[in-house]
Amino acid sequence: MHMKASDHDHGPKTVKVKFLLEDPEGLTGDGGKEEVECKGAIGENILEIALENGINIEHACGGVCACSTCHIYLEEGENACNEPEDDELDRVEEAPGIQMNSRLSCQTVIESEEPIVVKIPAWNRNAVKEVPH
Ligand code: FES
Fold first, then answer.
1. Which residue from 3, 120, 131 is spatially nearest to 65, judged by alpha carbons?
2. Domain 13-125 adopts which CATH fold?
3. Mean pLDDT score of the chain, rounded to an integer?
4. Contact residues of ligand 1, CB 6 A cut-off
């Protein structure tokens, strides 16, 4: 499913976002890039920023908090992002490999200028294909 386009305007892309890819080949088709540094805007979510920069995080429900395939680890910049809502917390519990810093990338919205570091585990690409529903 395609990502639902944002229905609101974003400000300028001034927030540093770094993605750490455990499976660069699976996520980008380019095995050489284990780190991708880019810029996001306040009001954008992490999934949108990843997709804009060629990082194909799974997003089976299209970014509406109805699956857990867009699970990521928010390594740095927790205070720069929104607090998870109850719906997100319920969903993220269904994801494999859950940690204290687990978030759903489609629900993680940038709220301030602090740099953000996101790790995308290797199993992200495979969760949908290997776990039958
Ligand atoms: S894409 Fe389904 S919850 Fe994020």
1. 3
2. Ubiquitin-like (UB roll) (3.10.20)
3. 88
4. 59-61, 63, 65-67, 69-70, 91, 104, 106
Residue of 106, 125, 128, 133 to test ligand 1 pocket, by largest number of atoms within 8 Å of CB: 106
112/109 Cα distance (integer angstroms)? 9
pLDDT tens profile 10-41: 789 999 999 999 999 989 988 778 999 999 99
- Concatenate the DSSP letters of all residues of the chain into one string: -PPPPPSS----EEEEEEEEES-HHHHHS-TT-SEEEEEEETT-BHHHHHHHTT-----TTSSSSS-STTEEEEEE-GGGBPPPPHHHHHHHTTSTT--TTEEEGGG-BB-SSS-EEEEE-GGGGGHHHHS--
CB 81 within 8 A of CB 106: no
